[in-house]
Amino acid sequence: MSNPLQQTIEALAKEKGIEPDVVISAIEEAVATASRKYYKTGENLKTRFNMETGQVDLFALKQVVQDVTSPATEIAIDEARQMYRQLYGEEVASSIELGDEMEFPKPTEVLGRIAAQTAKQVIFQKVREAEREHIFAEYNDRVGEVVSGTIKRFENGEIIIEIGRIEAVLPRKEQSRAESYTPGERIRTVIKGVNRSAKGPQIVLSRTDPALLIKLFEQEVPEIYDGTVIIRGAVREAGDRAKVAVFSRERDVDPVGACVGMKGTRVQSIIRELRGEKIDIVEFSDDPVAFVTNALSPAKIQRVSIVNDRERVVEVVVEDKQLSLAIGKKGQNVRLAAKLTGWRIDIKSEEEKRREVEAELTGLEVGAAE
């Protein structure tokens, strides 16, 4: 490329990952707009970037008609043929037909300064647009990925985090109640989504999404990373407690043991990362009775019976002293187990169940006596 403007366009396009044609067509359009404002003739003006000179050439387009009614945009066929006959000879002149469009060059010297300024503005604008588009495409493909960043500042309860060269937002509702941060601190989050906005794409992060927990397990547990152990579900009440259902594809690999690690090392590093959130790792089962039993861990379950298969309701009976553990603080353990398994869980103590059965039997005896 010989001329300076072309070199600038080429270099910028390469650096910012935009097609040079995008910038060139935008410059052509901008110069055309500037020309219309300058000439104010009502002509149909068109611009074309000249690769050889690096200038934007300007033309007035005129349509070939039989009788001219608008001299600014039309030319009579006889006049057009006469003009081309002088310039290119009879053969070219006779090929002109009604409805053709002809280009008439117009001086652009006056547009030189405008063109240069416009080119600068357009390149800047296009580069910004392309960068935004690039960021949107890149991060939209990375939704669900865990990223590390540095806390930059706090804005109305939201945390602004720097990831690489980009600022992303951790909204209040995606923050864990158990966590507090200081500017400059490193933090791991999961990319929740990307929103398009006037100021450019907004990358939304999360510390509460179960995807963060799953990704942390993938990073800490080699058996999950290589696909030997599979996470079949994860639920959280962020900052408080989480439950993860795991399943092993190989009989001799204990999925729960693999996730816990030697002396709990693997799960401990995840708990540390989540600022002390308790994590129950349970074995997944296709059998709802077994799965519900496991999901209510650490409580010991006496028996589980399916009440309604279609509505997915189970009844769980536990020893009296296990009842509060099975239900959990403010019902958290049973709530998370229900979310993990997809079954509605009705928990009763043995004493409750015994009284219920006795009442039913009494009712039957009374009915029989009558």
Give a written overview of the molecule:
The chain has 4 domains: 130 residues, NusA, N-terminal domain (N Utilization Substance Protein A, Chain:P, domain 4); 57 residues, Nucleic acid-binding proteins (OB fold (Dihydrolipoamide Acetyltransferase, E2P)), CATH 2.40.50.140; 76 residues, K homology (KH) domain (GMP Synthetase, Chain A, domain 3); 84 residues, 2-Layer Sandwich (GMP Synthetase, Chain A, domain 3). Strands 7-6-5-8-9 form a 5-stranded antiparallel beta sheet. Strands 1, 2, 3 and 4 form a 4-stranded mixed beta sheet that branches. A 3-stranded mixed beta sheet has the order 10-11-12, with helices on both faces. Helix 1 runs parallel beside helix 5, helix 2 runs antiparallel to helix 5 and helix 10 runs antiparallel to helix 12. The chain has 13 helices and 15 strands. With 370 residues, the chain is an alpha+beta fold. The chain is 41% helix and 28% strand.
Q: Keywords, please?
A:
five-stranded antiparallel β-sheet, four-stranded mixed β-sheet, elongated, 13 helices, 4 domains, OB fold (Dihydrolipoamide Acetyltransferase, E2P), GMP Synthetase, Chain A, domain 3, 15 strands, 370 residues, N Utilization Substance Protein A, Chain:P, domain 4, alpha+beta
Given the helix and strand composition, which structural class is it? alpha+beta
Terminal CA distance reads 106 Å
Briefly note the CATH topology name of the largest domain.
N Utilization Substance Protein A, Chain:P, domain 4
Treating each run of at least 4 consecutive H or I residues as one helix, how many helices? Answer: 13
Annotation, overall tally of beta strands? 15
Bulk shape: elongated
CATH hierarchy class name of the largest domain:
Alpha Beta
Mean pLDDT level:
88
Question: Mind telling me the C-alpha Rg?
Answer: 36 Å
Q: What is the count of structural domains?
A: 4
User: Which range does the strand content fall in?
Assistant: 25-35%
Main beta-sheet annotation: 5 strands, antiparallel
The percentage helix is 40-55%
The name of the CATH architecture of the largest domain is: 2-Layer Sandwich
**Strand-and-helix sequence, N→C?**
HHEEEHHEHEEEEEHHEEHHEHEEHHEH
Strand order of the largest sheet: 7-6-5-8-9
Low-confidence stretches: none
- CATH homologous superfamily name of the largest domain? NusA, N-terminal domain
